[in-house]
Amino acid sequence: MNIFAKVGVCFFVIIFFVLSLAGLASFSLEVAKIALFNQTHGELKLHPMDYVYLTALVLGTGGFYCCHSAKSEDNKNNYSFGISGTLISLTIMILYTVFTKDEMGDIPFFCPASYPYSSQLIRTACQVRAANLLIMWLAPAVTLFIIIAALIISFCCCFDKENCCAA
Known about the structure:
This protein is mostly helical. Helices cover 74% and strands 0% of the residues.
């Protein structure tokens, strides 16, 4: 295996690890958010998009592992799944953010300690919600950064060399 293949495998493992951890964290935080919102006895209200997002996390994670573990002759199905899965995920993330942006009322996004919460439960729910949104948007940003870094490394290593990947 040449050096470029090894680097490619390393970047794939890093991306897989980042997305797996982010998916697990997002799922856990969304379940915690739903439970906390339900404990506020109507003071904080869930949007139906919360359940769509939770369902998408479960189905998306299952589909990700299923389709990436299946081997195919030409990998066309894996690439099609990756592109369509990415577009569907981004659409759900955008819709989730838009529909749930005002669910905390006038409480600031980062849930400062100085804000007069009606209870500690409301502050905890606020913190879980903020962490959920941050992880939801940071994971794809970090993944994109890793992909760009891999492309830059590949370009810099191969610049002005013939057959650079045939080491």
